[in-house]
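Class, carefully examine what follows:
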Amino acid sequence: MRAGIEAGFAGHIASGVTTLCHCWQVTRRDGVVFASTDHDVALHFDGVTYRANAGLSAQALAQTSGLSVDNTEALGALCDDAIREDEIEQGRFDRAEVQAWLVNWAEPSQRVLQFRGSIGELRRAGGSFRAELRGLTEPLNRPLGRVYQKPCSAVLGDGKCRFDLSTSGYIAERVIEAAQEAQYFRWGAFLGFEEGWFARGRLDVLDGPAAGLWGMIKLDYFKGAERVVELWEPIRGPLPEGTAVRLTAGCDKRMETCRLKFNNLINFQGFPDLPNEDWMMAVPRSDGANGGGSRR
């Protein structure tokens, strides 16, 4: 089927008289799809309708045959019924999947996929936005392999850690009683978890206009009779009173925490017995141990 589409498109190009346009499809990580075209009427293929006059255009695409990163930029206008400024601010388009098609608008079955990748840096100003598009080779720039360090290198609950966060006692769901600047949360009655239990964990918004957003927890402490949870950065969305949130226990990556808090030492991904820098300075001496420190 794909070979037939490409053959038909090649035949259209070879005819010398073309009816071409561009189509873009943006699929966010929450499953919301945005599709647009620079043609003057909407197009439909693969079960997706590409809206016309959506204010989206693209600059020249740089592509290579090696492992260098393919990249381009998409330019567009912010409008309420398409890509909104508040959703960009909330990070809902971060790492969204992008597909760019060159299409024969007179026969949409004749088309070729020009670019596939994800959204990188997003900038907005004056009612418009500029999105960096990164190709499929972008992940090859990430370093691979383990790091030799004392703290654990795994993320709590991932495939290396293997800890089941759904285990009772590691997740708490509450409704917001008081929130200041979408960064400081207070509860009058929040028992059953010791102080600091959720520090280095995360707070997920479960419903309301900010549903799907989350933040990393910086501090978790008692202030008088209140429980206070402070995030590193504010949630970038409205959080009215009564919004449901989920708090997940945090991990400071130490071996003692892995053993005592999570009982998961068998999956600890650090190297706690690595010698420190003082050990590297140690030299033999006749009068006792030399730990590398200064002599007194």
Observations:
- The chain has four helices and 16 strands.
- Residues 2-14 form the longest helix (13 residues).
